[in-house]
Design brief:
mainly alpha
Length: 76
């Protein structure tokens, strides 16, 4: 049963993630704000890298979303 809806669900999920706004939490349009600390930011980025190294794939996100802040694009 899941196979019948998988592609449609995946397409809609990735489109929704792509529309989401990452940024300043003071901006009412922001849905995903910064990571709380540089240490946690580094741990998350390391976890994403480990997942890819271990054979995982990133369907969306997985990268730093801003050069000046601890923002990570929503990742699937």
């Amino acid at each position: 049963m899941q196979a019948a809806v998988y592609d449609t669900f995946k397409e809609k999920l990735l489109a929704r993630i792509d529309r989401g706004k990452v940024g300043d939490p003071a901006d009412p349009d922001t849905e995903v704000g910064p990571i709380v600390s540089e240490k946690q930011f580094d741990e998350i980025m390391d976890a994403i890298a480990r997942g890819k190294k271990d054979g995982g794939t990133v369907a969306a996100g997985g990268e730093r979303a801003d050069d000046n802040g601890w923002l990570i694009a929503p990742t699937v």
